[in-house]
Each structure stands twice: as structure tokens, then as C-alpha cells.
Amino acid sequence: MGVMGILSESFRVPFRLGRLGILLAFSLILPSSILFIANVFALRPFYLDIHLKSNEQNITEKGTPRYDELFSGMEKDVRVIMGEEAAFFLAGSILQLLATVAAIYASGLAHWGQKVSPRDLFVRVGSIWRRPLITWLCIGVFKLGYLFLLVLFVGLLVLITQLGTTLFSTLAILVTLSGLLYYLYLGMVWELGLVISVMEEGSQGFSALGKAGELIKGRRLQGLLLYLLFTITEIALFWFFWSHRWFPKFARTGVVPLAIAVTLTCLSCLIALFSTVVYTVFYCVCKESRGEEIEAQETSGYSLIPNTIHVDAMNMAT
């Protein structure tokens, strides 16, 4: 199954889920929208205060007590904004993780032609959330570490290119592009590791990521293209949002910019859920193409899917 086949199968999964798919979408969209609106109204007074104090500071003589008072007030506002943003980010991340775990498990069953009730799905998520949480934290550490090293290395090359040599300039560009390309590949491995931590008992953290690196062998290009597709989509949404400066607009004025921003938030949630479905289908395809057994997970004392699903890779190839 190629990239288009994986995407086609992923589009079928929500229809197989039926009402459960709609419930999953609303369980992410509704809380995310509420968090977003709460974030806007909680931070609006501080953004307005910074705006007003900044305007007054521009016409205030430096070194005067009033100038220092305005500067101190803006510093305090920034600290409050950073604290509240961190709190909202943490809440949003937890919500996103739980929705991702539920979507992975439900999508895996739907791909195999099985169904699960909302209650059973809730029970299952409650019993396995620690594994993907550990994997998610490991992914975060890897991302920060890789990006730090990439920025550091590219920064050193940029400093070297100040010598004016074309060779070093070309080398800096090549290293940057290679680093970003490899980051995209790692991103697919990380997403696959998150799926493994949900679908396979005893797999979490570094062990799940290691399994993902082995599983993706032979399908690296497919994985890279899939991850690149959703990365470009997310970048486009981010660019559209911030290029129009929606936040400053709805922080100060009417309902329309806020409604547009909430709509974009809902769209982002849907894309995130669909990407999770795609990564889950990709995981299943990788397992099937290698002829590996897919161990079933159990919940509430009974099996939701057959004990094992074994696919003969040779038969699939023919």
C-alpha cells in the first residue's frame, strides 16, 4: 500500500467509527475551543495594559520615575502572560494527548474492522495513558535536543561563513537542509513510536521509539512524505493565523476575528485527529507488510479484537 492508499484507507476509518468518530472529534474540538477563548479573555487585559503603557512610555522621558514605573509594570504583565500561557499550554497538551491515545486505539480497531463502544474506549484510555505519556515526554526531550544541536551547529557555520567564502556558505545551507530533512524523518519515527506505545503492551518511552525505528525500515520514504504533508499543512495554518495577526486584533476588538480564530482552532484539531488516524494506519500497514503479528489489547475483562492478527507478507505481495 502506497501513500495514496494509506490516505484513502485513513479517510474510510472515520466512517467506520461512525458516531464514535464524531464523539472523538467533539471531545477535542469543544474543550480546545473553550480553552482558546478562555485564554483570550484571560490575557486580554494584560495585552491591553502593555499596549497602553508602551504608548505612554514612548512619550515619557527616559530615566524619570514614571518611565521606570511603566517599564516595571510591563515586565509584571509579561510574567503573568508567560505564566498563564504555560498553564493553558499544559492543559491543551494533556487534552491533545488523551484525544490522540483514544484516536489511535479506535482507529486501529476500525482498520481491522472491529468496533468499540465509547465506554470501553474510555476504560482503555484510562488504563494505558501512562505509556504514551512517557513516550510523549521522551519525544519532547528528543525534539528539544535535536533542534538545539541543529541550531548550534548551523550557528557556528554561519559565524564561519562571515569569512566570506562560498564553500562555507554552501556547506551551511546543505547542513541546514539535511538537518531539517532528517528532523522530518525523525518526526515520523516519533509519531510511530507514540502509536506503538498505545497499541503494544509493554512498549513505552525509548523502547517504543526503538521499535518504531525498526518498523519503518523499508517504508521510510512513505513515512517521510506523510509527515511532510501534515507538517506543510500545519505551517500553512500557523502562517495564515499569525500573518493576519488575529491575536492582537481579537485581543482588542470585536467578535469576527475571534470567530475566525476559533474556526482555525477547530480546523487544526480536525487535522491533528486525521493525522493521528493516518499514522495509525501507517503503523498497521508496516506491521502487515512485515508479516508480523499484531497483539490485541483487552479491556474490561474481554477481548475487543481477536487475540492475534497475522498477515502473511508473501500473500499480500501477490
Automatic annotation (TrEMBL):
Keywords: Membrane, Transmembrane, Transmembrane helix. The keyword Transmembrane applies. The chain crosses the membrane at residues 20-43, 86-112, 133-160, 166-186, 224-242, 254-282. Coiled coil: none annotated. The keyword Protease does not apply. It comes from the Eukaryota. This is Uncharacterized protein. The lineage of its organism: Eukaryota, Viridiplantae, Streptophyta, Embryophyta, Tracheophyta.
